[in-house]
Structure formats: C-alpha cells, structure tokens
Design goal:
By secondary structure, the protein is an alpha+beta fold. Helices cover about 15% and strands about 25% of the residues. The strands form six sheets. It has an eight-stranded mixed beta sheet with strand order 1-23-19-22-18-17-16-15. A six-stranded mixed beta sheet has the order 14-13-12-24-25-26, covered by helices on one side. Strands 2-3-9-6 form a four-stranded antiparallel beta sheet. Strand 24 and strand 25 form a beta hairpin. The longest helix is centred in the first third of the chain and has 16 residues. Bound molecules: 2-acetamido-2-deoxy-beta-D-glucopyranose (4 copies) and fe (ii) ion. One 2-acetamido-2-deoxy-beta-D-glucopyranose binds next to helix 2. It is an enzyme of class 3 (hydrolase). Its cofactor is Fe cation; Zn(2+). It catalyses: a phosphate monoester + H2O = an alcohol + phosphate. Belongs to the metallophosphoesterase superfamily. Purple acid phosphatase family.
Length: about 475
C-alpha cells in the first residue's frame, strides 16, 4: 500500500505517460519504472574556490568538523576535525542546554601521507556519558581560533521511540551533491541523523587520488555533519588502493579521517559494526572486506544477529554499499557473492530494510528472497517472502560519475519502483509497528515525495506491506 505522489510536480502529459507505464507494469506483474526523465546534464564537481569549500577564517581554525555515534547506545559522540597550521588543542569543551557546567574531553591526533600529499592534523575525540535526548554545545580549536557547534543526543533506546533517519548515498561533491544535501536539510520531515551508505568524496576519481578532494568534501558537508551524526558505511571509493603510486593500504584516508564505534559492538575492524539508536538496531557491513565463511566479518555477523533484541529495538536495518537486488545495468550482480553468504540469515532474523548505494539511481524492491537454490534444485528465482527485507538502492547522491540511466528491461517483478534521478530518503520510525518512508528527488520541490511506503515491522506487525501485486 501507499505509493502516491510519484509525479505531483510533473506536467499532465508526464502524468499520463506515467499512468500508462503503470498499467503496463501491472499487466506484466512487475513494479514501476518511473517515467520521470531527469534533464541530461553532466555532473561536475564544484570548483575548489566554491563557497562550500571555504576554509574557516582564523589562525589554525578547526575545519571539516564532523560527528558520529560514539558508543553502542547513543550516549557518546565522536567529534572529529582538522587543523592545518599546528596541531593545536586536542580537547573538546562541551556542555548541555540545562547545565552551565563545562566538561572537557581529550582526543588524539592522526596524520597520514598519501603519494605526495600530507594530511593536516586530524583530531578525534569521544564525548562520553552524555544524557539522552539532550542538546549539547561543543567547542573545538581551544587556544587558537575556537569554533562552536551543537547536537542533540537521541532518546534512550526503547521499542516505541520515534526517530527520523535521513538516508544519503554516493554523495560526492558536485553541484548536484550540493542540491541533494540542501534538499535533505530543507526536508520538513527533519532527519535527526544520516545513514550514509558509502562513497563519500570521490577523491579517487582525480589523478593520483588527489587527497585535497577529501578535505574539500569534509568542508562541504560540515554544515550538516557537525550538527547531527552521520553513520558511516565504507564504499569502494573509500578503498584508495593504488599500488602503482605506492599506496597499498586499503582504506588509508578513510580510516584516518572517519572513526566509528566498532569496538562497542564487538567488531575487530571499523568496516563492520552495529549501533542501537532509539528503536533501531543498525548493522553496517562492508562489501569490500572479506565475508566468506570463517572470516572476521562473517563470524561477527553470525554472532551479532542473534544479539538483536526486537523487544528493545524492533527495527533491524542493515547498511551495505553494493546492492544485492539491482535492476540497473550498472554494477549488475556485483553484490551477488555477499548475497549468497548472508541472505538466509537476513530472512531468518527478519531484517526490516537493507539500504545499499553504489548504483547511481534509486530503486526499491518488494520483500523477496532467493535462498532456496542448492546448486541442484533449479530454484534460483527470487520469490515474494514476508520474512525478507525490502532492498533499497539509494546511490543517488549526485557524484561526479553521473546518473545511472540504463535500466534492465523488462523490470523484474521483485523491483517495486526505480528511477534514474538524484535524491535522498527519510525513514521516519513512528513506533514498533510502523515506519513511514519517503524518497525525494532533487528535481522536485521540497514537499514532493517521489516514492513512499508505510513499512510494517517484521517482528511486531509482519503484515504484507508490498506496493505491487
Ligand atoms: C594554539 O593553541 C595551542 C594549544 O592550546 C597553544 O599551545 C599554541 O600556543 C597556540 N598558538 C598560538 C599561535 O596561539
Ligand atoms: C550550495 O548550496 C548552498 C545551500 O543551498 C548554497 O548557499 C551554495 O551557494 C551552493 N554552492 C554551490 C557551489 O552550488
Ligand atoms: C530484551 O529487551 C527487553 C526490553 O529491554 C528486556 O526486558 C529483555 O530482558 C531483553 N532480552 C534479552 C535476552 O536480553
Ligand atoms: C503506530 O504508528 C502508527 C502510524 O502513526 C499508528 O497508526 C498506530 O496507531 C501506532 N501504534 C500504536 C500502538 O500507537
Ligand atoms: Fe560505489
């Protein structure tokens, strides 16, 4: 139920075409391929002297400020920033709205070299023992140019706690990326934290992986991520693996710049981990780390899934970069080997939603699984499965590589909705049974919803919530 408003801002002709396309889709038992046609334009990176890349004024001013959840339950925050003139202070000064009492936390500094580039002083500092549901102010750059920011901690973890996540993937730093971020910021549904589905800066699309583009990206998104946590997923553009220029350590820039609380969930590497936030248990996986049987990621996930307590966190959401169900002619079947390894577990544990990126478009599946095949029995087609997650591909942030406009035909019946547009989504969890999900294309004004669904929780309310027959 619940698909509506798919073309509210489009002219009547487009609406008619859409209606026809929908009829055809129904006849062939497939989903809907939106007929919304995005104007064909090149996606180009914003130039280095763009307003969004400006270095904050002042001696040794902290720049690239960003925060993420710092523990398993949302009572800690990792604050990160970069200074360039000198190391400066490692400390963060912070205080809550209802207390004048300023607390101080000490962080540490990392630097890295990459080919001919040497990074600034990258600071990471964890603020712990925060109160739930409280506004905090924090200051970085103590002793030199000090800058102040603020954030809200989430409510205590619990089964009926409403919470609103933004969902953004494959953002990059083009003019379109800036539109996506602006659109997200202006969304009246007011995301409280972002699930970022991998592929951050696309610095590796520049000669020798020009690391300056990691710095510009972090300055660009500071206006959001300094004030609300973004939950990080590693994508292929985080690998920066370039042996031809002597860079043989995968994820070097990413791991120096972005810290995640992986140890808090018993993980041994920052590429796979989990957090609990409000009524959601979020599992982050890495498409670019080993996941075969007996590997650390495999072992961790096998132990992690039974730990999820749906009485405490009804919503089980998985984030990974390379989609398992994708009907675009880009990265087709790249996620297949991971699907083969983990899909039976997702069905067994009734995962609600899986978000992926990588493909630069938007697609939402019905609840389907493809786990019956055993090499012998020929049962190798996806089937409707009410214990299975909905798979959403949201690699449509608008990066320099452009839109994925070549779709496979006919649309497979498991694909409920797909469109070659840039945008973002909001997952608005209402309580243990209901979550309202909406996808917003950049080309539309803010109130317009390109795709919407009421998701019913698989544990508490496993009623059919499919949107196509
Ligand atoms: C910058 O701050 C650091 C740490 O507080 C301090 O040691 C240093 O003297 C300051 N530099 C200047 C030029 O004020
Ligand atoms: C990016 O978007 C912001 C907010 O809409 C705007 O102020 C800024 O001028 C934009 N910058 C570029 C380079 O498009
Ligand atoms: C699951 O969470 C509920 C609610 O917080 C709690 O009462 C219960 O003991 C937990 N179950 C386990 C197995 O930890
Ligand atoms: C959960 O939220 C939905 C949607 O807002 C609402 O219809 C339903 O009554 C809520 N359930 C409870 C138990 O409050
Ligand atoms: Fe990717």
């Amino acid at each position: 139920m619940g698909v509506k408003g798919s073309s509210s801002s489009s002219p009547p002709v487009v609406y008619l075409v859409l209606a026809l396309a929908f009829n055809v889709a129904v006849l062939c038992n497939g989903g809907k391929t939106s007929s919304f046609v995005r104007k064909a334009e090149k996606t180009v990176d914003m130039p280095l002297d763009s307003d969004v890349f400006q270095v904050p004024p002042g001696y040794n001013a902290p720049q690239q400020v960003h925060i993420t959840q710092g523990d398993h339950v949302g009572k800690a925050v990792i604050v990160s920033w970069v200074t360039v003139d000198e190391p400066g202070s490692n400390a963060v000064l912070y205080w809550s709205d209802n207390s004048k009492n300023k607390r101080r936390a000490e962080g540490h500094i990392k630097r890295y070299s990459y080919y001919t580039y040497k990074s600034g002083y990258i600071h990471h500092c964890t603020l712990r023992r925060l109160e739930y549901n409280t506004k905090y102010y924090y200051e970085v750059g103590l002793g030199n140019t000090t800058r102040q920011f603020s954030f809200m901690t989430p409510p205590a973890v619990g089964p009926d706690v409403p919470y609103t996540f933004g969902v953004i993937g494959d953002l990059g730093q083009t003019f379109d990326s800036n539109k996506t971020l602006t659109h997200y910021e202006n969304n009246q549904l007011k995301g409280q934290a972002v699930l970022f589905i991998g592929d951050l800066s696309y610095a590796d699309d520049y000669p020798n992986h020009d690391q300056v583009r990691w710095d510009t990206w972090a300055r660009f998104v500071e206006r959001s991520v300094a004030y609300q946590p973004w939950i990080w997923v590693a994508g292929n553009h985080e690998l920066d693996y370039a042996p031809s220029i002597g860079e043989k350590i995968p994820f070097k820039p990413y791991t120096h710049r972005y810290h995640v609380p992986y140890k808090a969930s018993g993980s041994t590497a920052p590429f796979w981990y989990s957090i609990k936030r409000a009524s959601a248990h979020i599992i982050v996986l890495s498409s670019y780390s080993a996941y075969g049987k007996y590997t650390p990621q495999y072992n961790w996930l096998e132990e992690e899934l039974p730990r999820v307590n749906r009485s405490e966190t009804p919503w089980l959401i998985v984030l990974l970069h390379s989609p398992w169900y994708n009907s675009f002619n880009y990265h087709y079947m790249e996620g297949e080997s991971m699907r083969v390894m983990f899909e039976p577990w997702f069905v067994q544990h009734k995962v609600d939603i899986v978000f992926a990126g990588h493909v630069h478009g938007y697609e939402r599946s019905e609840r389907i699984s493809n786990i019956a095949y055993n090499i012998d029995n020929r049962n190798c087609t996806p089937v409707r499965d009410q214990s299975a997650p909905v798979y959403i591909t949201i690699g449509d942030g608008g990066n320099i590589e452009g839109i994925a406009s070549n779709l496979r035909e006919p649309q497979p019946s498991y694909s409920a909705f797909r469109e070659a547009s840039f945008g973002h989504a909001i997952l608005d969890i209402k309580n243990r049974t209901h979550a309202y999900y909406s996808w917003h294309r950049n080309d539309d004004g803010n109130p317009v919803e390109g795709d919407t669904v009421w998701f019913f929780n698989r544990y508490w309310h496993p009623v059919d919530d499919s949107t196509t027959k």
